[in-house]
TrEMBL record:
Keywords: Membrane, Transmembrane, Transmembrane helix. The chain crosses the membrane at residues 6-27. The keyword Transmembrane helix applies. The keyword Transmembrane helix applies. It comes from the Bacteria. It holds the Pfam family YycH. It comes from Companilactobacillus suantsaicola. Gene3D superfamilies: 3.10.450.310. This is Regulatory protein YycH domain-containing protein. Residues 10-428 form the Regulatory protein YycH domain.
Amino acid sequence: MKFSRLIIQVLLVIAVITSIVLSFFIWTNTARYQRGRNIDVTTSTQNKNEVPINQVISPTSVIWRKDSSQHLIYNSNENIALSIQKIMQDWKIDSPKLVSQKDGAYYQKTIQSKNVLQLVYPSQTSTSILGYLLDNNSLRNDKSYSFNRILINLKDKEDKNIYLANDKNYTIYRAPVKNATSAPIKKLVNKANINLKIRLDIMKHGVFTIFTEPIKLNTYSYVISSKDDGEYTTALFDSNTSGLVTSEDNGVYTYNYGESKRLVSDHNSGELTFDDYTDTSVPKTKLAFLQRGYQKVTNLQNSISNLRLYSADWDKKSLIFREYVEGFPIFKKSEFGSIRIKFSRKGSTEHFLNKVLEVPVPSDQQPTKLKSTTDILKGLDKVGYSINDIQKIEVGYQWESEVDNEKVVDLKPTYYVKIDDHWKPYSDWTNDTAEDK
């Protein structure tokens, strides 16, 4: 009996030591040990080259109206938008035809229709890009139309179409569909574990998603990764760093390779800017524009599984990418999101942050309850901002570094508001909290 008790005690000691060792490696070696919970679409073990372009450029919101109200839905274990996009690859979608344009009343009625599911892109895209992402030649080779919503009727069997809607000019197109069934999409909708009541309203600056009731969202924590400047210079200067000229001023390091390339790394903010004066060919089509942008982000970051195209300005040839969690964008301490890329005849410029989400870790913080959007708008009006001043308003995650662990960041939900072309959290505009007490 004494011998057996001794064996048990020894095994317990071994188990405790093993647990401590594993915990140490999880926190110090993010490349080797990964948490199993799938926060967005893919786990962080996925190699960046395995993240396809149709994941980085994809819808980020799914809206469903079954009865009297609309709901923003999401599944923490399976990204509904990407799953539907994959289903659509098997559909035969013909060339779209114009249904209506510049009719705000008809447009609002359409995007509020019953039994309609919507895939919403954060920025304008085009039918040619959709054709490329779905491998659909009818769309890819057709005249390119701009849109940011795909509408699918899940109940009317007689309506064998999808609808493409453009919030910018209230235009709607109808595209006939064959080989399609709503059954797998309905199955995905029924699996949603985030279901938030909303209303879509047309305002001066576009269509706003209004949360009609207070909403409760989880707070997340992530281990983040960063690189030394040498890793960036190796990747961005084509591994030829022997001719680099380096200078430093108050923590801002500048690396020049002749007069052709320059990297500026601000160690105080973690922001970097790369100018390539040899890259003077401006993409001629929207598809080429996005393909070039995708190539650049894969060259910058080790992990892009959470990265999504957030904004595309075709006229200024500028792209903005943000990281997403649970279908909501992350706002970092910068004006440009995670990565901003700009093309011009004088060369290309890339702004980016040296902090990337890698591994989700358990958070001991309670879910955050936010006010309804109506209450947020009232709060802005109270301090002097009318609804016409607000260019955009959306729920996003605020990036907050932990004081006692610089490798861990907390992501806390709040409202972000864009006024005068600047994104700020609601609290910065009003000196009030967005949380519902």
